[in-house]
C-alpha cells in the first residue's frame, strides 16, 4: 500500500476525532529531475506557485476528505517542519504532540495510527489536527 493510501485510511478512520491537513511542498521526485521508478504521478519541478497549486490539486483528488494546501515557493512550511519530503505531525491545543521521522525512512504511519488510537481511548475536550507535510 502506498504511503498516500495509508494516510488516506488514517484520515478516514479518525475523522471523528482529528481534522487532517496535507501541506503540499516541493516535489520529491519531479518527472524532469530525480525520477523515481515507483512515482505514482508525473509532476515536473515547480517553477512557480501555479505549478505547485496544480500539483496540490492532483493530491487533493487522491485524498478528497483531507484539506490540502500548498507551501509557497519560499518553502516556509517545509523549512519550519523539516519535512524533507514527507513527515507526519499531530497538533493539539496549538502544540506539537507527535512529530514523526523524516520520510521516506522515518515515515511511520503505524506510529500515527497508534497515537490516534490512544488518543481516542483517552479522549479529552481538546481537538487534534493531523498534518502531513
Search tags:
single chain; 133 residues; alpha/beta; five-stranded mixed sheet; 4 helices; 20% strand; globular; selenocysteine
Layout of helices and strands, plus pairs?
Elements: H1 3-13, E1 18-24, H2 49-62, E2 67-70, H3 76-81, E3 88-92, E4 95-99, H4 109-121, E5 128-132
Describe the structure.
Responsible for the deiodination of T4 (3,5,3',5'-tetraiodothyronine). By secondary structure, the protein is α/β, with parallel strands linked by helices. The chain is built from four helices and five strands; from the N terminus they run H-E-H-E-H-E-E-H-E. A five-stranded mixed sheet has the order 2-1-5-3-4. Helix 2 links the parallel strand 1 and strand 2. It is globular. It starts with a helix and ends with a strand.
Radius of gyration: 15 Å
Helix content: 25-40%
Order of helices and strands: HEHEHEEHE
Low-pLDDT segments:
none
Lateral strand order in the biggest sheet: 2-1-5-3-4
Q: Give the oligomer, counting copies of the same chain as homo and different chains as hetero.
A: single chain
- Beta-strand segment tally: 5
Shape: globular
Helix/strand-derived category reads alpha/beta
Which band does the percent of strand residues land in?
Answer: 15-25%
Amino acid at each position: 500500500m502506498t504511503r498516500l493510501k495509508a494516510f488516506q485510511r488514517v484520515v478516514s478512520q479518525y475523522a471523528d476525532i482529528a481534522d487532517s491537513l496535507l501541506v503540499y511542498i516541493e516535489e520529491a521526485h519531479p518527472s524532469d529531475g530525480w525520477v523515481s521508478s515507483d512515482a505514482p504521478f508525473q509532476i515536473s519541478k515547480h517553477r512557480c506557485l501555479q505549478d505547485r497549486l496544480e500539483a496540490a490539486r492532483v493530491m487533493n483528488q487522491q485524498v478528497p476528505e483531507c484539506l490540502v494546501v500548498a507551501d509557497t515557493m519560499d518553502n516556509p512550511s517545509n523549512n519550519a517542519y523539516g519535512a524533507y519530503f514527507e513527515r507526519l505531525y499531530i497538533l493539539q491545543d496549538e502544540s506539537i504532540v507527535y512529530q514523526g521521522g523524516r520520510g521516506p525512512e522515518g515515515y511511520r504511519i503505524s506510529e500515527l495510527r497508534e497515537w490516534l488510537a490512544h488518543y481516542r481511548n483517552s479522549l479529552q475536550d481538546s481537538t487534534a489536527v493531523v498534518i502531513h507535510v
